[in-house]
Amino acid sequence: MEGLLKPGIYFWQGNEACAYGAIAVGCRFFAGYPITPSSEIAEHLARLLPLVNGVFIQMEDELASLNAVIGASWAGAKAMTATSGPGFSLMQESIGYAFMTETPCVIANVQRAGPSTGQATKGAQGDVMQARWGTHGDYNAIVLSPNSVQEMFELTIRAFNLAEKYRTPVILLADEVVAHMREKISVPPINEVQVVNRKEPKKGDRAFFALEEVAPMPAVGEGFNVSVTGSTHDEYGVRFTANPEVHRRLIGNLMNKIESHKHEIVELETHNIDGCSTVIVCYGCTARTAYEAVEEAEKRGVKVGYVRLKTLWPFPTETIGELAQQAEKIVVPEMNLRQIFYEVQRAACGKAEVVALNKVGGGEMITPEEILRGVVP
Amino acid sequence: MDKRIEIIIAGLGGQGAVLAGQILGRAAVYDGKNVVQTQSYGAEARGSAAKSELIISDGKIAFPMVRKCDVLVVMSQPALDKYVNNLKEEGILLVDTLVGDIPETRAKVYKVPATEKAEKVLGNKLYANVIMLGALVKATGITSWKAMEKAIIDSVPEKARQANLEAFKEGTKNIVM
After folding, report:
1. Interface pTM, i.e. ipTM
2. Which of A324, A351, A330 is nearest to A282 (CA)?
3. CB-nearest partner of A183 from B35, B40, B63
4. pLDDT for A147-157, tens place per residue?
C-alpha cells in the first residue's frame, strides 16, 4: 500500500481524496451505483481497491449497494458506499438496518440540488436533516461535514474510525463544490494515519448487541453463533418483537452509545469567537464563503466570530447555547432553505437573534458579499 | 498583499476546458502555490457550456469561486459572450482564432490559432486546449514551463503525453497580439 499512497503534496479532487482516505484507513470493500456528483469516489476505488486485494462491486441500485456494504462489514471488512440525494433516499431503509444491527460502515453522500433528480451537476446542502432523520424510528446519527479536499481525505478516515469505534453507520455529508473542486492536499506517511478497528470478541463471548458499552463484533465464519436482525433483539441477537422492555433497552443503549460520547465525536473549528457580537455558524462549502467574509470584515475593522461545524450530528447544542449567551446575532448561511438554522435557533433559546441566509439553485454559492451585508453594519 | 490570480477557462463540453484547468492547477501546485480549481458543466457529456475556474495564490484561498477574473481563456463564441463581462477591465483575454466576434474591450487580447494548429500540426482538434495553455504560459508566465510540462505528463494518459507536450510548445510560439 505504501506505493499507492506516498506522502507528499498532491493536487486532488475532493472525491479522489475521499477514495484515498478510505484506502489509507483500511477500507477494502466498496459497493455502489454511480451518480453525479459522487461518481469519482467509485471510479477511483474501482482502480485502487483491486491493488490492495479489496473488492469493488457496481451494484444494480442503491438499495443493493448498501446491503452489500452491510454484508461485507459482517464478513469483517471495512466497507463503504458513495451516492448523492436520489441514491441516499433509496438507501434510507438499509441505513436503518445498519443502525439497528450496529454495523460499522461509511456512506458518502455528495449533496446536489434536490428534491428528486433536481439538478444533477449542481451543488447544494439540502440533505442535512435527511442525514439525521432519514430512516424511521429513534436513533442517533453521526454526520461529518468536510469543507476542503484535505478534509475529504481526513474526514473519510475519521468516518471509518468513528464507525468502527461505535459500531454504527457514519455519513460523510459532502457537497458538490467540495467533492468536485481540486485543491492542494498534503498526504501524511501512511503509518501516521490513525486507524481504529472494531472490538473483537473473545472466545466464549455470546453477547454481541446493545450492551451499555459498544459490544464486540464477530465476523461471519469465525465460529461465533450470531443472529443479525433488524427486528428488536436482545444482546444475544434473539428477536423480541413485542416485549417493551427489550425494545427500550436496545434503543436506549443504541442512542446512548453516541450521546454519551458526544464530547469525543463533535468537532468544531472556531475563529474570533470571544467577545464578538456577531457570529457566523456554518459548515461545508458555505464555510469557505463565511471565512472569506470574516476576513474581509476584519479588514474593515469589524470582528466577526466564526464557528464551523465539522460534525453536523450530533449537534453541539451546548456550545451554540453558550455562544448565544455572549453574542447578539448568529448568522447561519446554508445552501438550502433553512435546515441547521432551526437547530441553531433551538440551541440559542432566544438568547441571541438567529438570522438565516439561504440560497438554492444552479449550484450557486452564497458569496462573501452576501454574508458581509448581514454582518457589517 | 499576497499575489493572487483568478482565471476562467471556458468552451464547449468536449473541448477540454476542464482538463486544461486541471493541468494548469497541478502545474501551479508544482510551483509551490495554493490552488483551487472548480468547474461547471451541463448534464450532457458534450456540446453544452463547460467552464473551469482557478484561483492561484501565495496565501490561503477560502471562497473557491471566481467572480472577476484576471485572465479569461475562451475556445468558443458562446463562452466568450457569456464570460467576457467577468473579465477585469485591465485583464488578459486569450481567444481561439475560430472565435470571430470579439467585443470591444480594454483587456489585453491574444489570439491563438489553437484549433487550427491542433488539426494541422497534431492531426486532432482535441489538442487545442493544451495549445491554449502554451499560449497562456507564454503570455502571462503564470507557471514555470518545467511545472507545466510535468503537470501535462502527470495529467494525461501515457499514449497522449508526447502529443500534448508538442501541443504545449505549439501554443508558446503561436500567439497573435
Report:
1. 0.91
2. A330
3. B35
4. 999 999 999 99
